[in-house]
Design brief:
This protein is α+β, with helices and mostly antiparallel strands. The protein is built from 16 helices and 23 strands. It has helices at residues 3-9, 18-28, 45-64, 78-81, 85-91, 117-127, 172-192, 239-244, 268-277, 304-307, 309-321, 336-345, 356-360, 382-407, 415-424, 437-447; strands spanning 32-34, 41-43, 68-69, 75-77, 96-101, 104-112, 136-145, 159-169, 199-202, 214-221, 227-237, 247-249, 255-257, 259-266, 294-298, 326-328, 350-354, 363-368, 371-378, 409-411, 428-433, 450-455, 476-481. An eleven-stranded mixed sheet has the order 3-7-8-14-11-10-9-22-23-21-20. Strands 16-15-17-18-19 form a five-stranded mixed sheet, sandwiched between helices. It starts with a helix and ends with a strand. It binds zinc ion.
Length: 484
């Protein structure tokens, strides 16, 4: 076995043990590492670089849609959390508490924010007085702590990073339209930037955010057939404005409570990138969020440092100047084959190989991570060819993921078949539901599947049907899946 084979073969094949494959990839590619504190991970530079791309691209959208960034405190007094009854009940099992400051016991314990509705609601009640103050459109980039029992890097960790939007509006209609606008922004973000197709819809009452009037979400399908929630957008109605007394005087001098929304996406999107696009050789990053988009590997033959390296450096400079995230791997201690395997594992979308013969023929070799066949490109058109190849990688990863989603979404009307599908094939099951929570509970208990979303738009050609669980008239069409 060659050295390069050994490097890759150390990864457990995805089909053999998905969760081991996932854990190994995260660590071997140096995206994240475990710490001595249970459930807490370090996001290493290679993983953090992905987050920076996500942040940049998401932040552009948040601002382009009229929102501004702000920062609120990490600690939230217990009395604030308790103001919205459903909210505190929902979060109580996961809250970390601060009870001492220095060596003094605190008069009131402070929650390490599990989400910021309570502290932000308190501040909004001071800032909002009149219709002229509305709408308030604020987003925060922050860390969050939720004391999770079962954890997994990026997918569920005690501390994670996210953005949380918190808006106030004069009317219920405006708040609903904001909630849906953000849901659409998230959908478009996931599909365009992450190349991850999603299904958008409402949550059932039991799956909604604690304190929300209505939760909307986008859900993606991981390649092991389990669903992952990629983002949520909540219409909070007046639940929090009543609890926190956020009132404004309208244009007829009447006092009303504001209508609110909150919405968020987190570092778990990085976990989705791994689980949707990764293969047996490692990561496959969509170019738009890849930390490194192009790696240049000079072929170390003959006098390569004199013949090849200067050209490789020139290419690197031209690509960087054209805005590409490029890395020249000129390390002498590794063979080209070893480097190919390493950058493949790290998911770099495009590799440029250049050796003495290519220099003579004024060309380089391009190898896409998603399709390992080689293509030649003239050095004078290399930057343009590389950009075009990256575009093709982006759309081919999306098409593959969409094909997987479509092939693993099944229509099921019979409960025995439902159970069999969930046990043996997973994926999304589209089925009718009577709307009764007892059926939702039974399905969860017997199959571990939950209602991921009730789609906003019913797929064409779906006829009304009966509840897959009890056989009564179907009220809602639902997407069921086992989920992370
Ligand atoms: Zn039913």
């Amino acid at each position: 076995m060659s050295r390069e084979d050994r490097l890759v073969k150390q990864i457990t094949p995805k089909s053999e043990d998905f969760s081991r494959w996932y854990a190994e990839i995260i660590r071997k590619t140096e995206m994240a590492d475990y710490t001595p504190m249970k459930g807490m991970m370090v996001i290493r530079p290679y993983g953090y670089a992905v987050w920076e791309q996500i942040q940049r691209l998401m932040d552009q959208r948040i601002k382009a849609s009229g929102h501004e960034n702000a920062y609120f405190p990490l600690f939230i007094p217990e009395s604030f959390l308790k103001k919205e009854a459903e909210h505190v009940q929902g979060f109580a099992p996961e809250v970390a508490w601060v009870t001492e400051g220095g060596s003094e016991p605190l008069e009131e314990r402070l929650a390490v924010r599990p989400t910021s509705e309570a502290i932000i609601g308190h501040m909004y009640s001071k800032w909002i007085k009149s219709w002229r103050d509305l709408p308030v459109l604020i987003n925060q980039w922050a860390n969050i702590v939720r004391w999770e029992k079962v954890t997994r890097p990026f997918l569920r960790t005690t501390e994670f990073l996210w953005q949380e939007g918190h808006t106030c509006h004069a009317t219920a209609e405006e708040a609903e339209s904001e909630t849906l606008k953000i849901l659409e922004m998230y959908r478009e973000f996931c599909e365009t930037e992450l190349a991850v197709p999603v299904i958008a819809g409402r949550k059932s009452a039991r799956e909604k955010f604690a304190g929300a009037q209505m939760t909307y979400a986008i859900e993606a399908l991981m390649s092991d057939g389990k669903a992952l929630q990629m983002g949520t957008s909540h219409n909070l109605g007046q639940h929090f404005s009543k609890a926190f007394d956020i009132k404004f005087e309208d244009q007829n001098q009447r006092l009303s409570y504001v209508w609110q929304t909150s919405w968020g996406t987190t570092t778990r999107m990085i976990g989705a990138l791994v689980m949707v696009h990764g293969d047996d050789s490692g990561l496959r990053f969509p170019p738009r969020v890849a930390p490194i988009q192009v790696v240049i590997v000079p072929i170390s033959l003959g006098n390569w440092k004199e013949d090849v390296l200067p050209t490789a450096r020139r290419i690197e400079g031209e690509m960087a100047a054209a805005g590409l995230r490029v890395r020249l791997d000129g390390r002498e201690e590794f063979t080209p084959g070893w480097k190919f395997a390493e950058w493949e594992m790290r998911g770099v979308p495009l590799r440029v190989e250049i050796g003495p013969r290519d220099i003579r023929e004024n060309r380089a070799v391009l190898v896409r991570r998603d399709a390992s066949k080689k293509e030649f490109a003239g050095l004078d058109v290399l930057v343009g060819e590389a950009k075009a190849a990256l575009d093709r990688v982006q759309s081919s990863l999306f098409d593959q993921a969409r094909g997987f989603l479509e092939n693993n979404t099944r229509e099921v009307a019979d409960y025995e078949r439902f159970k069999d599908e969930m046990e043996n094939r997973r994926g999304f099951i589209r089925a009718w539901w009577c709307g009764d929570e007892s059926c939702e509970d039974k399905i969860k208990e017997e199959t571990m599947a939950t209602i991921r979303v009730l789609p906003l738009v019913k797929p064409a050609g779906v006829e009304p049907g009966r509840c897959v669980c009890c056989g009564r008239a179907g009220l809602e069409l639902a997407y069921f899946a086992r989920a992370y």
